[in-house]
Structure formats: C-alpha cells, structure tokens
Amino acid sequence: MSSASHHPSANQTAAGGAKQQLASKLASCSAYSLAEAPPPFLASASMAAALFSFRAAALAALLVAVMAACGARGQLQPSNASADSQERSLLSYSGGWIPAKATWYGAPTGAGPDDNGGACGFKHTNQYPFSSMTSCGNEPIFKDGKGCGSCYQIRCVKSNHPACSGVPQTVVITDKLRHAGIIDMQFRRVPCNFPGLTINFVVQHGSNPMYLAVLVEFEDKDGDVVQVDIMQHNSGYWEPMHESWGSIWRIDPNRPLKGPYSLRITNESGKQLVAKNIIPDNYIPNTNYRSYVQY
C-alpha cells in the first residue's frame, strides 16, 4: 500500500528545559572547504536559528544532531589501526564520546544545499523532522554515502566561544556562531528516532519506465541504508538497486519496468524491511510515498 504526500511545510524550532534534546538526521553538504581536518574527524555544523538548552552539569550544550555528508573527500584520514577502532565506535550505540572539531557550514537558515540535496540527497532540511539540525561528516562518517542517515549526539567541550560556556542558558544559534571558527566538540552515535513517522520514499526527477531512482529517508534505529532491492509487479523475485549517491538508489535495466513496485531496504545492522507495493505504476516524480513500515 502507498500514499502520496508532501513534506510538512511548517519549520520546527527546538527549545525547552535543561533536559531537552534536539533530534535530526544525517543530511548532506555539496562541498567542503576545510581539508586539513585532524584525526579522527572534523564535523561541519549547519545549525542556524535553532534554540538550544544547556545543562548545568554539562560542559556545554548537549544536542541530538544529524551528521551529514560532504561531497568533497579532502580530509586527512587516520591510520588504518586508528580508523578501524573509530569505525567500531561509530557502529556502536554504547560507545563513548569521540573528540572532533566543528565549524559552520552552509546557509544561515540551515536549509541545506541547493544542488539536488547534496551528497546525501536529503532536501528541505530546514523543515521537520530535520529542523535545520544537520551537519557534515568526513569520510569515516560519510562511508561513501552509506553513512547518510546516521544520528549522533554532539556537545561542546571547551569554552572558546560564549555558546560553549557551559553556563546554563538558552541561546539562539545565529550568525555570531558562524564566525566562531573551529570549535572543539565531542560526538557519539545514537539510535535515530522519528516519532510518528514511517519510512518515506521519494521518486526522483527523471524517473521513467526504463529508469527508477528513489530517495529513502526517516529510518529509525541505524538511520542509514546499505542496500535497497526492488520487486516489480508479479515478478516474484528481488532485483538489487544501485546507489546513485547518498540515500538515492536506482535501477536502470535494459527493459521497461512494471509497477507497482515493492522495496526492500537493509540497514547497517543487517535488518530488512519490506514496503509492499509502495510505488504505483503511475508514480509521479518528486512525490513522497510514505510506507507503513519502520525499524
């Protein structure tokens, strides 16, 4: 079953008491200007006009943010042994805090890149549920696109800017933070959670009977997708789709495709979900088809 809808148009800003956490998802940047990132990672924050709540006991604001991928690959990489250890930490939700550095990236509104969603393909990131809470991650986080959708907590660890003073207060992240330079941060992976939302599929512009491309978004738990398979109408078998970039998957066989189409997604933990007949034969490009499945 499928239903066509559009993203909610209302932007959501997050504010509240000292215990509130802000949720978001791994969105993408189209370019990355800082190439000399020290190991292990350099994250680029794009978090404008959102309200943050500071804990009295914390060194700085604690927020749930989405790590997003950048198209450029210029960052310095850790040694193999260090990279393996860090990768294991990133796969674990129980891992400790990992040091990193963050700086501003992108538009003041946090709306994400204009070039078709950047390296992950996520659009309208200034709207719910992303709510401008997106950031960029270098290759160990990006994972050649398969890290798109993962969720992380980040927090300031040094008072090199008033926004990271650690004094309990509510601040608005504005242009002043964009000029704060590089800020020491910590991050750790956490399960994604999109209350009230199911996994959404967006048929991409240019799809036709010989080519179908789909964006997959709003996956709970791992948040990312490592494989998508498609079953055509009455075919009885699954065909692998190929990653175009980020969270956009495509199939372009040398024969016409026939819907309705069922999609099977596999996350990083290996769990599979099937959205049966989610995309109709007469689909409309740039339309959301919301499933009834969720991790």
Tell me the total number of β-strands. 19
- SSE string, helices as H and strands as E: EEEEEHEEHEEHEEEEEEEEEE
The CATH architecture name of the largest domain reads Beta Barrel
The biggest beta sheet reads:
6 strands, antiparallel
- CA gyration radius, whole angstroms: 19 Å
What is the average per-residue confidence, as pLDDT, rounded to a whole number?
Answer: 65
Count of distinct structural domains? 2
Determine the number of helices (DSSP H or I, runs of at least 4 residues): 3
Question: Beta fraction of the residues?
Answer: 25-35%
CATH uppermost class of the largest domain = Mainly Beta
Our measurement of the CA-to-CA distance between the termini, rounded to an integer number of angstroms, reads 18 Å
Give the neighbour order of strands across the main sheet: 1-19-11-12-16-15
- How would you classify the helix and strand content by structural class? mainly beta
- pLDDT < 50 runs, ≥5 residues: 1-84, 166-175
Q: Indicate the percent of residues in helices.
A: under 10%
**CATH superfamily placement of the largest domain:** RlpA-like domain
Per the principal axes of the C-alpha atoms, what is the gross shape?
elongated
CATH topology of the largest domain: Barwin-like endoglucanases
